[in-house]
Design a protein that fits this description.
- This protein is an alpha+beta fold and about 450 residues long.
- The chain folds into two domains: about 280 residues, 2-Layer Sandwich (BirA Bifunctional Protein, domain 2), CATH 3.30.930.10; about 90 residues, Anticodon-binding domain (Rossmann fold, 3-Layer(aba) Sandwich).
- Helix content is about 45%, strand content about 20%.
- A hairpin with a 5-residue loop joins strand 15 and strand 16.
Length: about 450
């Protein structure tokens, strides 16, 4: 019986060329985040289920990967009468990076007043895999805790926009809405309060399923067709409106609902504040934006491109989440870049260019050269700042060159008995065919010059 060697559905192996592009993208994200004053954080791959459950809404809870009890504990649980799912696991793989941050904040006493953290780590969701949708994927989060100032929103949006600018992706917008404004729109449409949550989940799917799909989603969730149609009318932005005009339109529609005053004012203030940030030109009021996670309490945002369906990242304010762990309200706001989708977009648009992977030099040797001499020569080149692979065997030099070309190494260093005795190296540019024999130190300098010029 053959063994299935494919990775589990929804996961991937990353080969060297793949990882080179991923590391390049991660490096840009880290560099930009740090330029905004964010500091790194890492948390465990799994958390207590009590930490995770109840933070993402019912649909999110269903997508948690649970870790079964170990050995004897699992065996005992299985023997209990009426055993259920909750009895078999007390740990789960992290679903996102925001809830772990909230736990860390509640568990750590000496964090700064304004904790600006970034985190690049994988998360896991028991979702249905598809193109660009995985069960294991990397998230790239930034968050600011400890302030209700809208400067924090402007900063996280600005940092994410700067990442996209650095990568050459300027055809994006940052869609902006407010969770409390959306609740007021749902109320204005005539939906009962108990249907608010299910309406939010449905609206969150609008960009994927379209207006007709949303109508069907409303019907499937038991939402009155007339109320659903009115809600769709309320959230749909007419063509040609400026951001201020769209807020004026929404204010007129919600004039009879006092609770709409604060979120509308906050969105106006955020637009004014963000005018001085990198995010300013990219912000666009979008009342259809819902963000599915249940912990958002204020402004919410999402990066979108007109050329793509779906989002390239999103986030918002979540002033209640940390308080679930700490027992006291702690304001917070965050943004997460959709790393996997961003990677696909960059590959499709050819934005990576040449990303170096593998060694600069293959050190080849003739049969009459001792392995220790070859390793000694390679070590000298490495100390000079070159990445060097030593060919472990001694076939004909031509075969060693062919191997170098097969792994995309551009330069060869050749060590024969004479070179070893005289402290020299022969070096060859495999692209141009140029070959020189030089003292070892000079050979290293020339190889670096070739490498930098390539």
């Amino acid at each position: 019986m053959s063994i299935n060697t494919s990775p589990p559905s929804g996961t991937r192996d990353f080969l060297p060329d793949d990882l080179a592009r991923r590391r390049h993208l991660e490096g840009v994200i880290r560099r930009v985040y740090e330029s905004f004053g964010f500091v790194p954080l890492e948390t465990p791959a799994f958390e207590n289920l009590s930490t995770l459950l109840g933070k993402y809404g019912d649909e999110g809870d269903q997508l948690l990967f649970r870790l079964l009890h170990r050995r004897d504990k699992l065996a005992r649980a299985l023997q209990e009468p009426g055993v259920g799912e909750k009895d078999l696991a007390d740990l789960g793989l992290r679903y996102d990076l925001t809830v772990p941050l909230a736990r860390v904040y509640a568990n750590t006493k000496d964090l700064p007043r304004f904790f600006k953290r970034y985190q690049l780590q994988p998360v896991w969701r028991a979702d249905r895999p598809g193109k660009g949708r995985y069960r294991e994927f990397l998230q790239c989060d930034i968050d600011i805790t400890g302030t209700t100032s809208l400067v924090a929103e402007a900063e996280v949006c600005g940092a994410v926009v700067r990442v996209f600018e650095e990568l050459g992706l300027r055809d994006v917008t940052v869609s902006l809405n407010h969770r409390q404004l959306l609740k007021c729109l749902i109320q204005a449409a005539g939906l009962p309060a108990e249907q608010e949550g299910t309406a939010l989940v449905a609206i969150d799917k609008l960009d994927k399923i379209g207006e007709d799909g949303l109508r069907k989603e409303f019907a499937a969730r038991g939402i009155d067709p007339a109320a659903g149609e009115k809600l769709l009318h309320l959230i749909k932005r007419p063509e040609g409106l400026t951001e201020t005009a769209e807020l004026d339109r929404l204010a007129g529609l919600l004039a009879a609902i006092p609770a709409a005053t604060t979120p509308l004012a906050e969105l106006r203030d955020l637009l004014a504040i963000a005018a001085g940030s990198a995010a300013g030109p990219y912000l666009r009021i979008d009342a259809t934006l819902a963000r599915g996670l249940g912990y958002y309490t204020g402004p919410i945002f999402e990066v979108r491109s007109a050329a793509l369906s779906g989002s390239l990242g999103g986030g918002g304010r979540y002033d209640g989440l940390i308080g679930m762990f700490k027992g006291a309200q702690v304001p917070a706001v965050g943004f997460s870049i959709g790393f996997e989708r961003l990677l696909l977009v960059m590959e499709e648009r050819g934005l990576f260019g040449k990303v170096a992977v593998g060694p600069d030099v293959l050190l080849c040797r003739f049969p009459d050269v001792q392995p220790a001499d070859a390793l000694r020569a390679a070590e000298a080149l490495r100390r000079a700042g070159l990445k060097v692979e030593v060919f472990p065997e001694t076939p004909k030099i031509g075969k060693q060159f062919a191997y170098a070309e097969s792994i995309k190494v551009r330069f060869a260093a050749i060590l024969g008995a004479t070179e070893a005795q005289e402290g020299k190296l022969s070096i060859k540019h495999l692209g141009t065919g140029e070959q020189l024999t030089l003292p070892a130190a000079e050979a290293a300098i020339r190889l670096k010059e070739w490498s930098q010029a390539a």
